[in-house]
Specification:
377 residues, alpha/beta, globular, seven-stranded parallel beta sheet, 12% strand
Length: 377
């Protein structure tokens, strides 16, 4: 079976006879391992030259060995003609010949995030605390056509990647509506607003739901088959608030993904204690959880026991300690254990890791992980 066939089968009611291997947050992995993954200059990732984009993405896909890949939007044909990369003694710049605007490019580095929650440090200058301010801040255009997202060449790169890697499963990412509110209020503000002004939070979530649904429709037009729904920090709110504020909007988002013919993968970040029923109530096609850490335990056998074949389960191999540090035999034992758990979920299982690949994990280890899954699965 091809990787795409394995994942499609894993989403089916009958499950898959061959287990697929994936990693989560491919973008973080690429950012932290660029020089190991490709010989291309780092600025290729910003290049409007489609051959540059194909070259580095081809390297990443081939050197990683997983069964899905992230499907990107690209520059319009007008942008492809008029945006250029300039390299000189002052640095590397992206220049728009139409306007003359010149933007200095810098190589992405590990910043703004840590496994212990480095994003907590973000704080807006002030809290938006009224419905009117939210209406002004979260603008929803009355005119929206998802076809516009691929007009004029925006899908050129996606089409070429899907043609070359037709045997892999293309996915895109969206954020859950409640997780979107972090961008308005930051961590402390988000937590405070959920307690003090839940109706305002619900209103913000409904507006962000519209944006998320539009993103989903655009991804469907691009050619994606699956949508990864990211959600962070909601393990820190009460089960009641989670059920009343978050479950309805995520359920609606999942329904809209299903209407497009795509599959939904709900990645709930954090401790699921007290929220298990709510997590399955959103009716996502698949659920993905972190590995055990931060003082809580998430065992894949318990996830399968709770799922009982109702949805596809993604593995949660320890990406922080086990993947980079254990012996090959230990890695093989844990992968085998997770696969056996997945087979108890009627074969509705995709082997994955619980968190992004860490910077100190080599590309060779990630490839070994994928190879072992393909061997044992």
């Amino acid at each position: 079976m091809t990787g795409k066939q394995k994942i499609e089968s894993a989403f089916s009611k009958n499950g898959t006879p061959e287990i697929p291997a994936v990693i989560c947050y491919e973008g973080i992995y690429i950012r932290d391992h660029w020089d190991q993954l490709t010989d291309c200059p780092w600025w290729y990732q910003y290049s409007p030259d489609i051959e540059h984009q194909l070259k580095w993405r081809r390297d990443v896909i081939n050197r990683t060995g997983q069964d899905w890949f992230y499907l990107p939007f690209f520059y319009s044909k007008e942008e492809q003609k008029n945006i250029v990369i300039e390299i000189n003694s002052d640095g590397i710049f992206q220049t728009d010949k139409r306007s003359g605007y010149r933007h200095r490019l810098t190589k992405p580095t590990v910043a703004g995030w840590s496994e212990s929650g480095g994003l907590h440090s973000y704080r807006p200058k002030r809290l938006i605390d009224s419905f009117k301010e939210l209406d002004d801040y979260i603008y929803i255009s009355p005119e929206f056509d998802p076809k516009h997202s691929i007009a004029d060449g925006r899908n050129d790169l996606a089409l070429m990647l899907m043609d070359e890697f037709h045997y892999l499963y293309p996915i895109c990412h969206v954020s859950s509506p409640l997780w979107h509110t972090y961008g308005i209020w930051g961590f402390e503000g988000m937590m405070t607003m959920i307690i003090e002004k839940p109706e305002l939070v619900k209103y913000a979530c409904e507006k962000f739901l519209i944006q998320s649904i539009r993103s989903v429709q655009q991804c469907a037009m691009l050619g994606a088959k699956g949508i990864w729904i990211e959600e962070c920090f909601t393990d820190m709110i009460s089960p009641k608030a989670f059920e009343e504020i978050n479950v309805p909007v995520v359920t609606n988002l999942v329904d809209e993904i299903r209407k497009t013919g795509m599959k939904s993968i709900y990645y709930y970040c954090g401790n699921p204690a007290g929220k298990w029923d709510s997590l399955f109530a959103v009716n996502a096609d698949a659920i993905s959880l972190e590995e055990s850490k931060k003082g809580f335990t998430i065992d894949i056998d318990e996830v399968v026991d709770r799922s009982q074949g109702k949805c596809t389960v993604l593995g949660n191999l320890d990406a922080i300690n086990l993947l980079p540090k254990c012996s090959e035999d230990e890695l093989r034992v844990e992968i085998s254990r997770q696969i056996q758990a997945g087979r108890r979920n009627n074969g509705r299982f995709i082997m994955s890791i619980g968190s992004p690949v860490t910077p100190n994990t080599t590309v060779e280890r990630v490839k070994l992980y994928c190879d072992i899954v393909h061997e044992l699965g």
